[in-house]
Amino acid sequence: MRARVLPACLPSGRIIDNLIDSLGEDPTRHKVQAPDETVASGRATRSRRSPSRPLHEVVSCIADDIVFRVYHPRERLVEDDLMQRYGAKRHVVRRALAELERDGYVARKPNSGAQVRALSAKETRELYAVREILETSCARMIPLPVEPRRLQHLEKLQREHVAAIKSKDVRAVFRANVAFHEAIFRLCDNDALVDAIVDFARRTHPVRLTTLVTEQYLDQARREHDEMLRALRKGDRARLVTLCTRHLKPAFEAYLRTIDHLNG
Prior knowledge:
Strand content: 5-15%
Low-confidence stretches: 1-42, 44-48
Structural class: mainly alpha
Helix content: 55-70%
CATH architecture of the largest domain: Up-down Bundle
CATH topology of the largest domain: Four Helix Bundle (Hemerythrin (Met), subunit A)
Distance between the termini: 32 Å
Mean pLDDT: 82
CATH superfamily of the largest domain: GntR ligand-binding domain-like
CATH class of the largest domain: Mainly Alpha
Strand order of the largest sheet: 3-5-4
Radius of gyration: 19 Å
Order of helices and strands: HEEHEHHEEHHHHHHH
């Protein structure tokens, strides 16, 4: 089942509720179920007799479920539940939580265990300030004009992004958007800079999801992607830098409104 796209304009107090409702229809759709897997309370569980999944898979699956709000901000992550859901041994789950804490998805507090991290307004502003510095610096370094071969790859990724929007598949939209932007940043041919951009972008993945359920923001993102491609074709660096800055704002501003709801 595909997650539906919500109406364009939502009162700030309803953003999280509608977001969770939209993405909560089928939280296990992206999981491959083993023959011994069962479903309980809307979340997949596995028999503990199954071999433990490798660490990297468990980390990826938990992060994915946090990004797409199978687990909500500030929700406790109970080891026993995670062991069942992801078919993993306790030591694997604990190592996965440690990695997710390092990557900013999970917060662990004394005597209360692990919970999904909810970024504060201050943390969100700081992360986006760094993202703006990194991404605009990258745009200023891209050799122009861009080779036709590399432009064709970007155009293909943008077609995939548009197709995902038309199909109203939130997960596909998210992944196509990530792939499109990373491909643009790769044009600068500075791997260290791109790695830093990808790292800070990953830390804000749950923030960015906030705008992926409204038609208004999705249409704006599509149009801005098209404008970025035009700027790259024409060698218009100033326009590209402006677009990179503007493109960050909708998700940032929408998430700040959700924080008010969470703290209300």
